Amino acid sequence: MVYDNAKLVVAFEKWLEARCVVGYGSTYVGELMVDFMAFSKRKKLLKGSPGHNAFGECLMNAGFHRKRVAALTHWMGVTLKKPPKKVPRRRYKKTLEIQKQEAKRRIAAEKRHRKEFLMSPADRRKRRDKIKREMKTETAERNRAVGVED
Predict the structure, then answer these.
(1) Which pLDDT score is estimated for 93?
(2) Which end of the chain is more exposed for a tag (fewer CB within 10 A), N or C?
(3) Would you state the CATH architecture of domain 5-87?
(4) Which residues of 41-70 are buried (b: 16+ CB within 10 A; e: fewer)?
(5) Per-residue pLDDT tens for 116-150?
(6) Which residues, at least 6 apart from 129, have a Cβ–Cβ distance to it below 8 Å?
(7) Distance between CA atoms of residues 150 and 140, nearest Å
(8) What is the C-alpha to C-alpha distance for residues 42 and 11, in angstroms, rounded to an integer?
């Protein structure tokens, strides 16, 4: 959604006065953005999101500085009076929830590998033969469906 820059500046200044403590501390950019959007929607100052770039530009023009802390962007010199309760923290373009899901998948794969490693050679052979039989039947079924004979 296209936004009016003058409206953004006015909304930003009102938000800074009402919701922020200026001069010390640091705050994660996601918390600032979520709080700003909630404030501007509640006060009907902006219809849509200005985007992270425009919001960051407003913060920079107001005299705040960015700092990367543990792969997250924080703005120095501004804190929120009442920070939002739930904000997804993004690291390297991935939320922590996605990182947790990836970790669970990796652990499950390691467990499968460990289980297979602990199998006896005879059990491994049986498993391999079973997989080969399943693949042969799938191939035969596919060939029959297409009309190709072995």
Answers:
(1) 58
(2) C
(3) Orthogonal Bundle (1.10)
(4) eeeebbeeebeeeebbebbeebebeeeeee
(5) 778 788 888 898 899 999 999 999 998 888 887 75
(6) none
(7) 8
(8) 11
Structure tokens at 90: 């993004």
Low-confidence ranges of the chain (pLDDT < 70): 1-4, 88-96, 150
Cα distances (Å, whole numbers) of residue 43 to 12, 13, 15, 20: 12, 13, 10, 16
Residue type, 139: T
Which residue from 79, 87, 2 is spatially nearest to 38, judged by alpha carbons?
Answer: 87
Q: Is the Cβ–Cβ distance between 2 and 61 less than 8 Å?
A: no
- Measured distance CA(143)–CA(119) in Å, rounded: 34
Q: What is the pLDDT of residue 1?
A: 43
How far CA 21 is from CA of 26, 27, 80, in Å, comes to 10, 11, 6
